[in-house]
Amino acid sequence: MPFSRRRTLLRGLTGALIAPALAPLLPPFTKGHAMGAETSLPQAGRDLPIPASWTGVTGALARDDGEPLPQGTLRRYRSDDSPAPPASVRVQMDLFARLADLPAGPDGQDVTAAAAARGVTIDALATAIFGPGKFTRPTVILGYRLGSAQPGFALARIAVDRPEAAVRVTLCGLGPGRRVTLAHLATAHPAQFSAVLAAVCPIDG
Asked: Which H or E run contains 78?
């Protein structure tokens, strides 16, 4: 065999052996960044890894979701998921969808009264989230903007004397094509709501 052909063959074999060995070391393809921080989340899939930069953020499940949540992840529910989201999530999505025409305001604005005027009350959302039993009632619905026009919301119990304390929160974003995206967090600081919303509910995916 000529030397040039033998060298080409050796290069091909070497590449075939090295590529599989390096594959586990390569980062998975992701896109979507929140506020320029290291908060990449994959566009596809339900369970998303929580970036290390989101200190104190932990995921939670819908009360009627029987599938365990892997440690270090949050679960993203979408209205166009197949199979469909749990029944409690669909009720929440239907309620939040009524707020699509709320006027734009600064991120974190209290929209509780405006939501109630559209039939979306804290009690209705809380009942859908927690069921008919006893629960700690949320106190506020906050409004956000995803991109230039698409609204996002946070439902949480925020104490007047500790407004920055970590709380349980339900985040919801209304996206293109009437898509509704929702996630429950067991803990997150209010200052993190906007960044988490932007990553969990990207305007292009």
From this structure: strand 73-78
Whole-angstrom distance between the N-terminal and C-terminal Cα of the chain?
53
The 8-class DSSP code of residue 34 comes to S
Residue whose structure tokens are 């026009």: 149
CA distance 129 to 127: 5
Q: What is the mean pLDDT of residues 143-161?
A: 90
Buried b / exposed e across 45-69, counting CB within 10 Å, b at 16+?
ebebbbbeebeebbbbbbbebeeeb
CA 94 to chain centre: 17
User: 170: closest CA among 149, 148, 139, 145?
Assistant: 139
- The CA-based dihedral angle spanning residues 139, 197, 99, 181, taken in that order and rounded to the nearest 10 degrees: -110
Taking the C-alpha atoms of residue 157 and residue 160, their distance in angstroms, rounded to an integer, is 10
Global pTM value: 0.79
Question: Hey, what are 130's tokens?
Answer: 């927690």
Q: Furthest-apart CA pair in the chain: how many Å?
A: 83
- On the question of pLDDT at 204 being above 70, the answer is no
CA torsion, points 164, 54, 48, 176, in degrees to nearest 10?
A: 60
